[in-house]
Amino acid sequence: MELTGCAPALYAPVLEILGQMGCRVEPAGDTVRISRFGRLHGAGRVFTGAYPALATDAAPLLAAAMLCADSESSIEDVIFERRFGCAEGFCRLGAQAETAGRVLTIAPGGHLCGTVVEAPDLRGGAALVLAGLAARGTTVITHPAHIDRGYAGFTEILAGLGAQIRRESAPGNGSVKKTSAKNKFVLQSGQKDDTIQLYKYSIELFLCEKRRFTITYPMEDKSYGTHARRRNG
After folding, report:
1. Spatial distance between the Cα atoms of 192 and 200, rounded to a whole number of angstroms
2. Which residues form the Enolpyruvate transferase domain (predicted)?
3. What DSSP state is assigned to residue 48?
4. How high is the pLDDT of residue 212?
C-alpha cells in the first residue's frame, strides 16, 4: 500500500511498530509504502504517550492489526482511560482480546469471522471496520455515525484499496432504502452464491438498524485512484 500527502514523521511510532510486526516500511518525503509478506508478529507491550510517542487515537487501529499476529501483543493507553471500547467487538468477531484497566491484551489463536458489531466510538468504530476486513464472511458495523465524525470518504478509500465495503441505510419503518451511487459501495466477490447470501443477510438486518457498514471477505484487487492505494505485487 502507498500513502501520500502525509509526512511519515507525524506517525513514525505507528510505522515503527508495524515494522517490528513484520511489515516492510519505506518512507520517502510525504509518502510511505507498506507491504507485508507472511503473517504478522506480535508487538509485545507498547504504550501511548504525548507527541512524539504513539498517539492515543492510533491505539485501536493498531490493535486491529495485532489481531492477525502470531504472538501476544498489548497496548497500554496512559492518555485516555476508556480507549478500548472496541474490545467487545473484537471478541464478537472471534479475537482473543481482553481489557484490564487501561491495557488491551490480544493473544494469538483467534479466528475472525464476520458478525454484527456496533461502533462504540470514533476510533473504536474504525478499528472494527479494519477487523471486519480481516474476518472471514460478512461483517456489519452498526452506528457508523461515530466513524463519520472523523473519517471523510472512509468507504471510498477502503474500496480503492480493494475492500468489499458498502454503506447502506433504511428509513425508520424498517423497509429497505437504496442509497445513491455516491453513498453506496458494493464490490462483488465474483461468486454469485456469496453475493445472493450477502444481499439476503443485509436486507434481513435492515429491520433492526437504520445505518451501518457492510464488509465482505475476501477482497478484490482493484484501484480507484484514492490517496491510499493498493500496490501491485
Report:
1. 12
2. 13-158
3. B
4. 62
Buried b (16+ CB within 10 A) or exposed e, 28-60: eeeebebeeeeebbbbeebbbeeeeebbbbbbb
Question: Would you state the pLDDT for residue 4?
Answer: 94
Whether residue 202 is predicted with pLDDT greater than 60 in this model: the reply is no
Entry field: residues in the chain: 233
Cα 187 to Cα 129: distance, rounded to the nearest angstrom: 16
Decide: helix, strand or coil at residue 191.
coil
Q: What is the mean pLDDT of residues 139-156?
A: 92
Which of 26-35, 88-97, 118-127, 142-151 is least confident?
142-151
Does 171 sit behind a cis peptide bond, omega within 30 degrees of 0 on the bond before it? Answer: no
pLDDT at residue 225, rounded to an integer: 34
Give yes or no for a contact between 17 and 54, defined as CB atoms under 8 angstroms apart.
yes
Cβ-in-10-Å burial (0-12, 13-18, 19+) of 146 comes to buried
Spans of all domains in the chain:
2-229
How is domain 2-229 classified at the architecture level of CATH? Alpha-beta prism (3.65)
- Confidence at residue 208, expressed as pLDDT on a 0 to 100 scale: 35
Buried b (16+ CB within 10 A) or exposed e, 115-139: ebbbbbbbbbbbbbbbbbbbbebbb
203 C-beta neighbours (distance < 10 Å), count: 13
